[in-house]
DNA sequence: AGCCTTTGACCAGCG
DNA sequence: TCGCTGGTCAAAGGC
């Protein structure tokens, strides 16, 4: 029960953090853009902690700042199940981290609409499809890291606003060192600095844990992340 | 030169 | 079996 409350607090913290960042950023970018950045960043860190193989981030343009759902496992269930994970990183530090990361992202990523919710990893787009209904395209991205099979699908509205991000699989590596100076160098710098700190302190358990053994193994068990057929 | 995006084609699952 | 749909491949071109 205690952990449950703790998790809810964390949820509130990163949502609030997102709102804060959004308010700061709203002068420079649209509502949806800001939400996309904020929620994707925040949820991704949540994801790292909770150890998920597949989840969805939805962006709603209505009342709530961010709506988080999960695929193949419901996220709320995980919030509660995460109570079994004893050691979680300090949430206060984490929310600060999110703020840094996101604010940097807002500065640099606003023009690059093709890289929504840049989470510090490198993605290569390998496909795009107009999903049923044809109202918006869905883009497919792969993690460019060798031997990392993480993929994500990004859905956009007709105006190009991000409506949903679906991650598949989990990274078996840390965030790459800074690169891509053209569209996000500054942001990645910040993110990397942050992650180096996190690596030495908080990331040890939840971060490494999921990836290594348990995760790769569990990934195999999960029907979602499928290997390429060819 | 290397990496990325675009885009048409291909393939598998499903009804 | 056929058509639809989602996911992926790979060539071409751009940066």
From TrEMBL:
Compartment(s) of residence: Nucleus
GO cellular component: nucleus
Domain WRKY: 118-176
Compositional bias per record (Polar residues), positions renumbered to this chain: 91-111
Region of interest (Disordered), ranges: 81-123, 165-230
The entry's keywords: DNA-binding, Nucleus, Repeat, Transcription, Transcription regulation
Pfam families: WRKY (PF03106)
GO molecular function annotations of the record: DNA-binding transcription factor activity; sequence-specific DNA binding
Main location (coarse class): nucleus
Biased composition, class Basic residues, residue ranges: 170-181
Gene3D superfamilies named among the record's database cross-references: WRKY domain
Biased composition (Basic and acidic residues): 192-202
Protein name as annotated: WRKY domain-containing protein
Species the sequence originates in: Zea mays
């Amino acid at each position: 029960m205690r952990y449950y409350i703790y998790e809810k607090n964390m949820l509130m913290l990163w949502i609030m953090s997102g709102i804060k960042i959004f308010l700061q950023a709203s002068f420079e970018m649209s509502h949806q853009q800001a939400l996309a950045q904020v929620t994707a960043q925040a949820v991704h860190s949540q994801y790292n902690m909770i150890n998920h193989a597949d989840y969805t981030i939805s962006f709603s343009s209505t009342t709530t700042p961010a709506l988080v759902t999960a695929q193949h496992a419901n996220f709320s269930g995980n919030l509660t199940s995460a109570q079994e994970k004893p050691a979680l990183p300090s949430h206060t530090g984490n929310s600060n981290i999110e703020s840094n990361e996101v604010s940097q992202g807002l500065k640099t990523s606003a023009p690059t609409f093709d890289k929504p919710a840049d989470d510090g990893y490198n993605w290569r787009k390998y496909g795009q499809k107009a999903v049923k209904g044809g109202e918006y395209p869905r883009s497919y991205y792969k993690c460019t890291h060798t031997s990392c099979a993480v993929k994500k699908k990004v859905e956009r509205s007709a105006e190009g606003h991000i409506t949903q991000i679906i991650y598949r699989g989990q990274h078996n590596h840390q965030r790459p060192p800074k690169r891509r100076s053209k569209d996000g160098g500054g942001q990645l710098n910040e993110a990397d600095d942050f992650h180096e700190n996190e690596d030495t302190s908080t990331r040890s358990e939840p971060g490494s844990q999921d990836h290594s053994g348990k995760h790769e193994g569990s990934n195999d068990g999960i029907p979602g992340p499928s290997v390429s057929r060819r």
